[in-house]
Amino acid sequence: MSDPTSDPKYQQLFAALQTLYTNSARADKERANTYLEEFQKSAEAWQAVHAILSSSTAGLEAKMFAAQTMRTKITYDFHQLPKESLASLRDSLLGLLVMYRAGPKPLMIQLAVSLAGLALQMTEWKTVLQDVVQHLGNDKETWPAMLQFIAVLPEEVSDSKRVSLTEEELDARTMELLTDNADQVLQLLVQYAQTAGPEGPSPVFFACLTSWLKEIPLQSFIATSLFDLTFSALAVDSCFDAAVDLLCSIFKETREVDEYMMVIQAIYPRLLALRPRIAESREDPDAFRGYARLFADAGESWVVLIARMPREFRALVEAIAEVCAYDEDLEAVKFTFYFWYDLKQMLTIERYAEARAELRDIYAGLVDIMIKHLHYPNGDNPNDLFDGDREAEEKFRSFRHEMGDVLKDCCVVVGGSECLHKAWEKVYMCLQNGTTKWQDIEAPLFSMRAMAREIPFEEDSVLPHIMEMLVKLPEHEKIRYAATLVLGRYTQWTSRHPQFLEYQLQYITSGFKNPSKDVMSAAAQALKHFCQDCNQLLIDYVPQLHPFYQQVAPALHSADLFEVTEGLSHVVAAQPPAQLYDTMKMFCAPIAQGLMAHIPNAATADEDLMKKIADEVELLTIFIQNVAPFVEASKPHPCVTLMQELWPVLSALLQAYGNAPFVAERISKCVRSMMNAYRMHMLPLLPAIAEMLVVYFDKLQYGCFLWVSGTLVRNFGELEVAAETKAAVWSFVQQQAINMFKILNKTQPKDIPDVIEDFFRFMGDVIMNFPQQLCTSNLLDPAFQAALVSLSLEQQDPLVSILHFMRDMLAWALPSPPTSIMPHTPPEVMDAVRAITSQYGPQLTSIMFSGMIHTLPRDCVQDASGVLLMLLEIFPQEAVGWIAATIAALPEGTSSAEERQKFMASLTGALQQNDIKKARRLVQDFTAHYRRRNVTPRNATRGLDYTFSYSG
């Protein structure tokens, strides 16, 4: 074979590789990458990569590229090879593995994966393992290559969705390659271990065992010398990680403890013998993490046995607690967290009460461990405890919340009072000592806050002492912040212990005078929960709360002001019906007056003013959302009386500032909240609201007017609504839809993705509430067209709304409607939807397939396949033909005729058996495989050439 590095036909390839792997210009690298991607898909690549791999002069980068290309081509381009060439490809790969038996290892791995992929798809090759062993197993120098192949084979078979084999072929091939060879593989590994020499087995040996665990019976494994060898390998640095991975995998295989009891009895003593190494490895972070994984994974796997036999397995729980106590590596400590949760779940079952009593002291000790870990560092710089390492600070903050979950588990097992007492005692001792750092007080305070959810509201032994202590703590920003948040977490307890309400409220509200923004935020959050949970106790406090609100509101950041407003709104909601209007107006009227004061400034308003207006509208929205008592439809609603007074303010504000999208959105949200809160009571305002939505959507074309329109349809499209109201709502729907169609006549969907999303969410409400009117109107055809053209978008949220609308609409072509508002689909509705589906079915099928292959985000594939399945359900024969025509139109060479025939036969068979799940899976697998083979990665996606036209 000629040297590829000097062969003219490969010069462009080597030039592209040279550009990619050297310090070339970015544009040159992109062009080189594009060329190499296309080269990898070409049929010529087979010969080229073999030539490079066989060359003695090609560089390592070129050979790695060739090996990776070989792997991907076997996976995705297997259809390019004639069957008569497969045997020579197999022999070539075996020869290359011999050639690269000494490495480089990454290259050898790629070749092993390539051979495994070939073995999976070359179904006529029946003696895979025997042939590989014959070629690579007779010489110690080639054993590493053989072991690498054995290690990757199960992984390639388990990842078999990437190849185009049917389920039946995959099942048969799995049996031939794995199940039938499990005993032989075990004997091979035993033989290798016996001849490995004084240095012991290589890490790939343990990788082989790990990957074959599901095939080799564990009873057979522990009966061999490999069992002892695995534990011995933990003392060998080069094998440590691989041995840990193997043992953790073994533990997970034994989760069915009754089935594997004999195996567990053999493993458990060997595991306990490793316990001293937890302490011995404290100076070696990697080793400590390995042992932490071992004990934590064993505990998770055998948690049922621990609950059944707590005395026998107590030592394992103690070992995991010992790992958890280590404070030098919090990442290793995290390995234990799921175990504590899992075991807690078992110990709460009544039949395991004995285990709960036996292990209770370990969970009690765990409380002390967690509080110790919660301490902030004692840094030299109090303003920067992490020495500028923001990542470390963020990790620690996140870790604290995970430790909080462990504390909740402790409360369940030990009891909330005892756990709280531990935290209270630590703070109490700090106060007694008088010279403690703030960290020593803040950490137990954080633990109190974390445990709040698990403390019963009737707790009377510890919480009264805590509540008395909190308001007397030393004045320090961090302590004040933590104490305020603790009060905010126990507001439901306070609602049952009103004697503590007065001084808690004073402590929280005094926090708004603190110069620290963090303390003010904590106070806002605590006050919200306080007002929400103690609203009945605060009914008579409105005369004090109102001036307090007026005083602090101007100084608060908007997020904190929203929290305070939400809290106070719950107090307003608790007022007696006769006082509700006056009380709500007391809070809302000043906000409305402030908004009206902005109207004259509209011409000169800057962005800051408009944001201030939007935030003030949000305050009204918060009151409306939370002050929404039930009032019978026949009686006037006191809040709606106030809404009628506020409406001119919102209308004037929209007219003055509606051009600002965020102002229009906040006003829209406020109107939507009115309708959701007061529903049928809003009928007097319905004409004005509908007119506003139509006029401003036509004028400004903002999607917010459409999502409010959907709320209007949902609230006033129900069957019990008066006929004249429903007719008015349908007229409103027509106007909004026509406005949208006019927009689409002159605007591309890609320029208004948010509006597209809101429109189809709106149409989803219409199809469910006005199916008869929509499906028999002249809006159905343009709505279908609008959906087709908008499917060219690539953003997920708009596509989801379109696909959901399509599925809901197509469902009306079936006898059973997709809603409970009617027992059967009206014939005229069914006929209309079937007619338009028949008209656009070929286009829709083509778009769905093209989208699933090229443009749709992965999270949209499920919905897209759902649309295809709806087509198959409505028109089984026709839809199969549409799919066949779509597949036939795929570019030549992108999939073989055999693959297409096999897919269509499987799909037809699934439909004949009415196996919808299988049909969905077949569609998704075919498109995913085609996409990976021909599209990913690619630098451009194919567009869809459908256009929208609406003549009105």
Automatic annotation (TrEMBL):
<feature type="domain" description="Importin N-terminal">
    <location>
        <begin position="32"/>
        <end position="99"/>
    </location>
</feature>
<dbReference type="Pfam" id="PF24140">
    <property type="entry name" value="TPR_TNPO3_IPO13_3rd"/>
</dbReference>
<dbReference type="InterPro" id="IPR057942">
    <property type="entry name" value="TPR_TNPO3_IPO13_3rd"/>
</dbReference>
<dbReference type="GO" id="GO:0005737">
    <property type="term" value="C:cytoplasm"/>
</dbReference>
<dbReference type="GO" id="GO:0006606">
    <property type="term" value="P:protein import into nucleus"/>
</dbReference>
<protein>
    <recommendedName>
        <fullName>Importin N-terminal domain-containing protein</fullName>
    </recommendedName>
</protein>
<dbReference type="InterPro" id="IPR051345">
    <property type="entry name" value="Importin_beta-like_NTR"/>
</dbReference>
<dbReference type="Pfam" id="PF03810">
    <property type="entry name" value="IBN_N"/>
</dbReference>
<dbReference type="GO" id="GO:0031267">
    <property type="term" value="F:small GTPase binding"/>
</dbReference>
<dbReference type="Pfam" id="PF24138">
    <property type="entry name" value="TPR_TNPO3_IPO13_2nd"/>
</dbReference>
<dbReference type="InterPro" id="IPR013598">
    <property type="entry name" value="Exportin-1/Importin-b-like"/>
</dbReference>
<dbReference type="Pfam" id="PF24139">
    <property type="entry name" value="TPR_TNPO3_IPO13_4th"/>
</dbReference>
<dbReference type="GO" id="GO:0005634">
    <property type="term" value="C:nucleus"/>
</dbReference>
<dbReference type="InterPro" id="IPR057941">
    <property type="entry name" value="TPR_TNPO3_IPO13_2nd"/>
</dbReference>
<dbReference type="Pfam" id="PF08389">
    <property type="entry name" value="Xpo1"/>
</dbReference>
<dbReference type="InterPro" id="IPR001494">
    <property type="entry name" value="Importin-beta_N"/>
</dbReference>
<dbReference type="InterPro" id="IPR016024">
    <property type="entry name" value="ARM-type_fold"/>
</dbReference>
<dbReference type="InterPro" id="IPR011989">
    <property type="entry name" value="ARM-like"/>
</dbReference>
<dbReference type="InterPro" id="IPR058537">
    <property type="entry name" value="TPR_TNPO3_IPO13_4th"/>
</dbReference>
